[in-house]
Every structure is written in structure tokens, then in C-alpha cells.
Amino acid sequence: MHLIQVDSVQQWMEDLKLMTDCECMCILQSKPISVEKDEQNELILSSQCSTWDNLQLLLKRAWIISTELTRIARKLEKNRWQRVHSMTVRVNCHVRSMVNEYNAFIRNSSEEMHQFENLLIDKCSEFTAFTERCIQTEDEKILKSMKSSVNETLATVAQYFGQLIELVLTCEAQNLLKQIELSDSMYSTELAINSLFSLTQEGARLCRIIAKEGGVVALFKICRQDCFRCLYPQTLRTLASICCVEEGMHQLEKVNGILCLADILTDNTHSEATHAEAAAVIAQITSPHLTFTQHLSSFLENMEEIVTALVKLCQEASSGEVFLLASAALANITFFDTMACEILLQLNAMKILLEACSDKHIVDTPYSRDQVVTILANMSVLDQCASEIIQGNGVQLLVEMLFERSSSGNSAEVAACERVQQKSAVTLARLGRDPEVADAAIKLNCIPRLIKLCRSPAERNNSDSVLVACLAALRRLAVMSPDGLEDSDFQQLVKPRLVDSFLLCTNMEESFV
């Protein structure tokens, strides 16, 4: 589960509340010490907090139980019976605490939920008693025969636990969606949407639950009411999160969500923030990494309108974040359908994107450059693209992108830099068939840089995909200008089969002699 990254000491203090002493908890059976109704007892975790605070507490407790169950399985493999028993006692305590905690704030728990509570608590008690018998037995043969039963009991506890958590989270998602549907005030609607968004950040499992319970339908209902215009940005942000799962995508298709998004993007009366969040939803549902976008037939019907609006958003973006969202949506659409590249060419998008790259306040990160070069790479398959690149000084930009390096060393940024290098080399390889483009690249000393990327693994962060792209671009340019290479470079990087040159470069090691 997702846990918010905070200062380590602060996180330890938060977790300490949940790490209660096992023996004390066994004796107390999670009952409060105080019986006075008006006295706030600090030992009771389920205090008068907001629904979201209580839900966060539940998720943290669930994460701890899940972690403990995994550790029990590992200790069981090593026959660490004493550790298995002490951890089983701890899980038993946490489960009872969790049940008490969510019963204190949940509003309409079902009969099925109570049934699973009893099943889980009974099975945990049985598990604890079982492991206690194991530590009292020294006979290895008896322990070996008991081990399979212990494993089965552990699996059952994990199963009941998972089903109970699913029911609790489903119940809470239903409550939030009911709040959105029945709310008669802007404040309570906003509160419910924000809580729903926070819930989506806890992982795909919760997004599936929300989608199945009608979350996409409820949120698009908000996006179709003018009185909620000020809530559109956070509503669309929540939709983008839910649509990372297949269930969310199916619901989006059912409620004709694409048409709604197209209407929002093409409506000039909406704020830039609303347009940006709508672009984020488009970027999510057209992601090339998803395998379930084929059913988005309605997207093709509205594609020209959407692409036109996204190009305009790129052109008028007031910040790097807005440009990133709009360009990411365009980049994904160019993978989604080849017709998008032709539309982009007609809209003069190449010039707009290249001009944006010269503004360091707009295209200010490797992530933004990654989106731009993705669009250029996908558009470069069109014959008309070469002249647009020349006119917009795009060859110089592509050569500059071969020098992309991370300034922070952050792993995500390093990966983005690799993609920029790879895609710029791919684009040069594709456009290199045009003599004018090839000549411009050669004059900008593109060949020496490609050679360095091939021969020096550190320059490409040891990326094989960058190496293959650079070899392909080098071979294309070498055809146009064979005199630009030294004989050793030609013999090793151009003349052999691509796979042989690849193996030669990947086996290169630094000499310290």
C-alpha cells in the first residue's frame, strides 16, 4: 500500500501508535481503559477524527497486518516457531484493534462484513492457539506434520483478512459516492471528491473498487453540471487516477466520457487548470502502456477536436506543468492512432512544439522534452515532416537532445533522459533519409556525438536502447557522409551487422592500464 513519504522520525512516531505491546493487548482484548464517555482516551486510536483520517488509520493498520502475515510465512519456512508464535499473537491483536477502530467510524456495516469479522477473529484465535502448541512441542516429526496445517491456517487468515478489507473499503467508497450524489452544498461535495482522490492514491485495488461502485459515473455527472465548474479540476484529477484500471476505462466508455472531455477541452470559457486536468485524463486513457484501450471507439470520433484543443493548450500554456500534461496527451495519441500525426501536421504543431522548447520556463524538465521528442519521432514517419523540421530549426534541437543528462541523479529523471536520447536518435535515423536533414545534422557535429554515445556506456547511462538507436542513426548518416567517420569507427560501428556492432559496444570496458 501507498504510504506518504515523511520525515523518518515523524513516521516512526506515527507507526509507534500502532505498535502496541502484545501482552497488554491480549489481556485488554482491545477494550478501552476508561469507561467515562466524555473522557478522551489517548489509547483509543479511533478518536473523533474526520472520515479520511480514520480511513488512513485503517489503511496503515491493514498495511501492518499484511506485512506481518508475509513475515510469518517467511519465518515458517525457516521453522522459527518461537518467532512465528509471537508474530501470530501480534497479528491477533492488530486484527482485533482494526475491527474495533473501523466499527467506531463506519456508518452502515453490512451483515456480510460482521460475518467476516467473526470468521477472521475466530481464525486468528485458532492460529494463535495452534502456534502455541507448536512451541510446546520439541518432536521434529510432529512439528513437520503440523507445518502444513499451520500454512493452511495462515492462508485462510490472509484470505479472510483480504475479503474483510475489501468489504470495508467498498463500504467507505459507497459512502463517499453517496455523499457526492446527495450533497446539497459545494463544500461537502468538494470534501467528498478530495477524499475520493486520496483513496485512489492508495493503489490500483482501491481504484477498481471505486470504479465498480460507480465512481466514474458520479464524477462525470459533476463534470456535466455548470454549477460545479469550480470543482472540475479536482474531479478530473480523480477521474484520471481511477482510469488507470480497466474497470474505470469501461465505465468511462459507458457514460460517453470521451465526448464530455472533448466538450471541456474545446470550451474556451473553462480555466486553464480545468483544461490541463482534462488533458491529464486523455493522457491516462490513451497511455501506450495500457492494454485495454482498444474499446475506446468513441475516441476516434472526437480525436480531431481533442488534438486541436491540446495543440492550442500547448501553445498557450502558462507553466511547464500545463505544457507537460497537454504534450503527454498528444504524445500518447500519436501512438494510439497514426491519423493523429497527419492532424498534427495540418495544425502546424511541429512549429508550436519546437518554439515551446526554446522557452526554458515552459519546457523545463527532461519529462517535457521526452513528450516533445516522442511526438517528433512518431511524426517523422511522414514524408512532409522533414521540411517542417528544417524550417523550425528542429535538427539542432534533436542534436542537443543527444546531450540530455540528469542534473539531480533521480532515477525517474535519469530514465527520462535515456528516453530523450533514444527518441532523438530514432528521429534522426528516420529523418536522415532526407538529404537536407542529414546534411544539417552532419554540420551540427551529430556524428561525433553518436559515436561517443555508442563507445562510452557512461554517456548513455549503460542503456542498450539508446545504443541501438544511435547505431541506427549513425549508419543512416554515414550513407550520406562516409567521409565524416574515421576508418576504425566505420569498421566497427557501420560496416558489420547491427547486432555485431551492438555486441562490440556492449562489451567495451574501461581500461585502467
TrEMBL record:
Q: What are the residue boundaries of the Protein inscuteable homologue LGN-binding domain, all occurrences included?
A: 4-48
Family matches, as Gene3D superfamilies: Inscuteable LGN-binding domain, Leucine-rich Repeat Variant
| Any Gene Ontology CC annotation | apical cortex
According to the entry, every stretch annotated as the Protein inscuteable homologue C-terminal domain falls at: 61-513
Tell me which positions the record assigns to the signal sequence: none
One Pfam family name is INSC_LBD
Question: Which GO BP terms sit in this record?
Answer: apical protein localization; asymmetric cell division; establishment of mitotic spindle orientation; regulation of asymmetric cell division
One GO MF annotation is:
cytoskeletal anchor activity
SUPFAM superfamilies tied to this protein? ARM repeat
Return the protein name: INSC protein
What does the record give as the organism's lineage? Eukaryota, Metazoa, Chordata, Craniata, Vertebrata
